[in-house]
Fold this sequence. Notes:
The protein is α+β, with helices and mostly antiparallel strands. It is built from nine helices and 15 strands. Strand 13 (285-297) and strand 14 form a beta hairpin. Bound molecules: FE2/S2 (inorganic) cluster (2 copies). One FE2/S2 (inorganic) cluster binds at residues 99-105, 136-139.
Amino acid sequence: xxxxxxxxxxxxxxxxxxxxxxxxxxxxxxxxxxxxxxxxxxxxxxxxxxxxxxxxxxxxxxxxxxxxxxxxxxxxxxxxxxxxxxxxxxxxxxxxxxxxxxxxxxxxxxxxxxxxxxxxxxxxxxxxxxxxxxxxxxxxxxxxxxxxxxxxxxxxxxxxxxxxxxxxxxxxxxxxxxxxxxxxxxxxxxxxxxxxxxxxxxxxxxxxxxxxxxxxxxxxxxxxxxxxxxxxxxxxxxxxxxxxxxxxxxxxxxxxxxxxxxxxxxxxxxxxxxxxxxxxxxxxxxxxxxxxxxxxxxxxxxxxxxxxxxxxxxxxxxxxxxxxxxxxxxxxxxxxxxxxxxxxxxxxxxxxxxxxxxxxxxxxxxxxxxxxxxxx
Length: 376
Ligand code: FES
Ligand code: FES
């Protein structure tokens, strides 16, 4: 396979090198740059040992292709020498006997620093939930949690905000809705986290149909669910709905059964959908809220969407990566494409996918990133 030139900023230093399209970031950091502080445990995104910061966000370097990080800012555990929070964490880990073999420690420290800076003074339950994507096989978690709690005490959350450029990938709209019309280009998506542990995504989509029509369609929750891959509605009683959402990610498959409340305000054309669900087999839980505003824009309609969500359990490890924001953007586009098809061609043209396949969607995201890099 052909190697491609890439340039990264690693621990504050510009570096360049060659990577094959399938080379993972962890292998590039360890093999090409000699930064062996990043450990590889499971190599399939489960243990968290390989966690590094990519553009300020913790990310699994065993699941990230090096070429997809071209131009990104990477920080590994070796890159925190002058960092006051990391210095405190290192001391606290030692004082609380939070490491034995130390294999998990690089990923633990990177995640711990993210918890402390993002959330400030957090309680033990939150720390345990936030750490659910990092596995330690030696110590149990009492020392690790105690160390993080100590460093977090009295701290204020630091503002975190990352913007992802809109990408001109109209082909992306075909993901999982191959026969649907091309969705309009999505506006930039903002990703941030709130003090209560929720991740927040905001995005705008435009639909080529009049605002009245879009507003009316959004009021029919069953038709809306048909536009969202993997979603189905079982009952609707007033503003209460029950239903399910099925997702699969390689070996992990989750079928969230849950309930929610729907509210709408005709005068401001704003609406909210709040819901929570649990995957009885896998043990993951999800809670979230979608708030939307429908605005006439020329002959079409702009929908401003804010999604707040919190995942716990095995799926939490995928909760805050750049890949997930790409994925969420793709989901919004898919929804917009299906909505457009429904409004312009009737429901039969809005294909509802039986299941939301994260692996397939993430592959599409990676493929598009590679295309952008190499013009393939
Ligand atoms: S090595 Fe990356 S998550 Fe385990
Ligand atoms: S200290 Fe050994 S795996 Fe965590």
